[in-house]
Design a protein that fits this description.
The complex is a heterodimer of chains A (131) and B (386). Chain A contains 1 helix and 8 strands, in the order αββββββββ. Chain A has 131 residues and is mainly beta. Chain B is built from 14 helices and 12 strands. In chain B, strands 3-2-4-7-1-8-12-11-9-10 form a 10-stranded mixed beta sheet, sandwiched between helices. Chain B starts with a strand and ends with a strand. Classes of the chains: A mainly beta (131), B alpha/beta (386). β4 of chain A pairs antiparallel with β5 of chain B. The structure holds zinc ion. Zinc ion (ZN) binds next to loops of chain A.
Chain lengths: 131, 386
């Protein structure tokens, strides 16, 4: 199932600028250098609010996943969407859609790599596919 | 003067697919019912704590809706599914120190609309298609069910927990619900029914998920001295605790593996001066079957990771050795957030459970779970004073 439309707000603007040019941005602490999730308002490791944007290498591991079942159209199978919590190699967790893999083939520990989808009329959305 | 806190009144409105009434109307009715149940005049209520659900319209205005004058305590409380337990805790503290004498705690909600599916009420609530929340929604993560499914799957892959083990919880609770006149779903189900029920979000089948209900529930907290002169057998609030883990979503997180019950449970038992083996009835927040399983582990009824074997070992259900969710819980009776386990706990502690009354009710444990395992409250209740 394709990703949906999302619009930016002030807090997420820099993240979506990165996504538009194919960069997966996370937060890096100005104090301890630790990485936090993009939406973190303070460092997950030391609590410092001062953080800068830094590109993730985009490689990660599936921690857990779920298969969302949509409502079936007439005579058709219900659409299924695989969503996952991915641990980036830098440490932060992202929640994103998994693409290019059947629900039955997903497992915890699956190595994945970030990509981006560019839906018409919305911001670029990060997704992950098997590495 | 014995100011030890007791629950002296319980009010439950009509519940379920009840249309044409707003959440504030349900809330007012629940408080009136709770006062009448206690044998109190409404005007004797001098404290009011409210917890609003999805409708977000139950709040301070309830004082005027009820015509209450000169309250000595009034506030909105919000920690999602842990709020009912939290309200009783704050009321207990107010009564104990003499700040107020009779505090009404109420939850009400009216998310169900006529001619729209129940699931839609919770799927789209409060989601704006912008920023981080919008990004989650655009990625397909638009409901609490998805987040709990992610949590449950992590438990499964870490400890080998299975869907059939979740199903055992659903089957046991439905057997209890068959004995509860207030339960919305009372037809017995089998494990095969659970497995055959449609997928909502894997690993959850339909029968892993709670109901959605309209209605309101209130309790009255007063002092042991005052309760002696009231209508109902007092339910003593012996101990309580909260836990808000503040999970960081990153490397090393216990998301899905541990709930706040691991901290609020031991704290509440210690305050009550009892141990887990004294607990005869456990009313556990059960937004999903998984939530019951992880809570049983975290309270210590079984070891961490052994919840799956524990729930299939014959402990659950009306014939089991531990009375868990004796009214059918949120899965089968009614979904009033933390008021579902709390209301049934009051019934059991009073010995008013009828066909579903647990034999050993000296210590009743109540678990409230809010957010996605983000907020937790525990109460220890008893028909006996400490
Ligand atoms: Zn830091």
């Amino acid at each position: 199932m394709p990703v949906g439309i999302v619009h930016r707000d002030a807090a997420a603007a820099a993240f979506f600028d990165g996504a538009a040019r194919g960069e997966l941005l996370v937060r890096r602490c100005a104090s301890c250098g630790g990485f936090s999730a993009p939406q973190a308002r303070a460092c997950a490791h030391c609590g410092t609010p001062e953080q800068e944007w830094a590109p993730s290498a985009g490689a990660g591991t599936v921690i857990t996943w779920a298969v969302v079942h949509g409502r079936p159209a007439d005579g058709e199978a219900a659409p299924r969407t695989v969503v996952a919590v991915v641990e980036l190699d830098e440490g932060p967790w992202l929640q994103a859609q998994l693409t290019g893999v059947a629900p039955e083939e997903v497992s915890a520990g699956l190595r994945v790599r970030a990509g981006f989808e560019h839906p018409e009329g919305g911001e670029a959305v990060p997704v992950f596919h098997p590495a | 003067m014995n100011r030890a806190p007791v629950i002296a009144g319980l009010g439950i409105t009509e519940l379920g697919k009840v249309y044409g009434r707003s959440a504030p109307e349900f809330a007012a009715e629940a408080v009136r019912l709770a006062a009448a149940d206690a044998g109190l005049d409404l005007a004797e209520v001098d404290g009011l704590l409210t917890n609003t659900g999805l409708s977000r319209d139950v709040g301070l205005g309830l004082q005027r809706d009820l015509g209450l004058r000169d309250l000595r305590l009034l506030s909105e409380v919000q920690a999602y599914g842990s709020s009912a337990g939290a309200m009783v805790q704050y009321a207990s503290m107010a009564v104990s120190c003499g700040m107020a004498d009779a505090v009404a705690c109420v939850f009400a909600d009216a998310p169900l609309k006529e001619r729209s599916p129940g699931g839609s009420a919770y799927a789209s609530a409060g989601r704006a298609p912008k920023g981080w929340q919008g990004l989650a929604a655009a990625s397909g993560i638009s409901s609490a069910t998805t987040m709990y499914a992610l949590a449950a799957r992590r438990h499964m892959t870490t400890y080998g927990t299975t869907s059939e083990q979740f199903g055992a919880i659903a089957v046991a609770q439905r057997a209890w619900a068959a004995r509860n006149p207030l339960a919305q779903l009372r037809e017995p189900i089998t494990l095969a029914d659970h497995q055959a029920s449609r997928w909502i979000t894997e690993p959850f089948h339909l029968l892993d998920c709670c109901l959605v209900s309209n209605g309101g529930v209130a309790v009255i907290v007063t002092s042991a001295d005052r309760a002696v002169h009231l209508r109902q057998p007092p339910v003593h609030v012996l101990g309580w605790g909260q836990a808000h883990p503040g999970h960081v979503m990153g490397r090393g997180s216990e998301f899905g593996l541990v709930s706040g019950a691991a901290i609020s449970g031991p704290a509440a038992l210690k305050m009550a001066g009892v141990t887990l083996s004294d607990v005869g009835v456990a009313e556990l927040y059960d937004c999903y079957t998984y939530t019951v399983l992880v809570s049983l582990e975290d309270y210590g009824f079984c070891a961490k990771g052994e919840g799956g074997d524990f729930v299939t070992s014959g402990v659950l259900g009306p014939e089991g050795s531990l009375a868990v969710n004796t009214g059918g819980g949120q899965l089968s009776s009614y979904y009033m957030w933390g008021m579902t386990p709390l209301s049934e706990a009051v019934v059991q502690a009073r010995g008013q459970g009828g066909d579903r009354q647990a034999a050993r009710n000296d210590v009743v444990l109540v678990s409230g779970n809010g957010g996605v395992l983000d907020h937790h409250s525990t109460l220890v209740l008893s028909p006996h004073a400490r």
